[in-house]
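#structure-requests
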Amino acid sequence: MSIRITAGASLAGALLLASVPVHAQGLSGNVTFASNYIFRGISQTDNTAAIQGGLEYSIMGIYAGMWGSNVDFHTPGDGSMEFDVYAGYKYKLSDDAGLDMGVIGYNYPGATADLHYDYTEFYVGGHYRWISLKDYYSFDFFGGTGKANYIEMGVDYPLPMGLS
């Protein structure tokens, strides 16, 4: 088991986090302590710390998992947890390129139904070498705000000493 410390953007956009990854045959897991859980530019914890964790199982490009975090939206009846479930398929086109598609269910146990926090997102994306592009689409986004589309682009350029 190893511990890594990452500064800057993270899975949830935390400012500083320490992650503990766990791997076994087809099964991987993680636990993260974050100074702030930021998702798509918005704090999900009212600018306070978060503890997060997840499990994923993958085999032959197919994967499924769950992930959770504490949340705080300062709304009466909003609950205090986000619990996501997801599944997808990654297809390797070459050593340099691949595709990824799937679905994520964002769930907020304890939140009252009239807040419409729970929603589903579909995604499709790909990568070529160190550049990635992914499009997320929801028919009824968080809070019942209607259709939403989010495009994410990433750069993961390898640096010396195993850094990127």
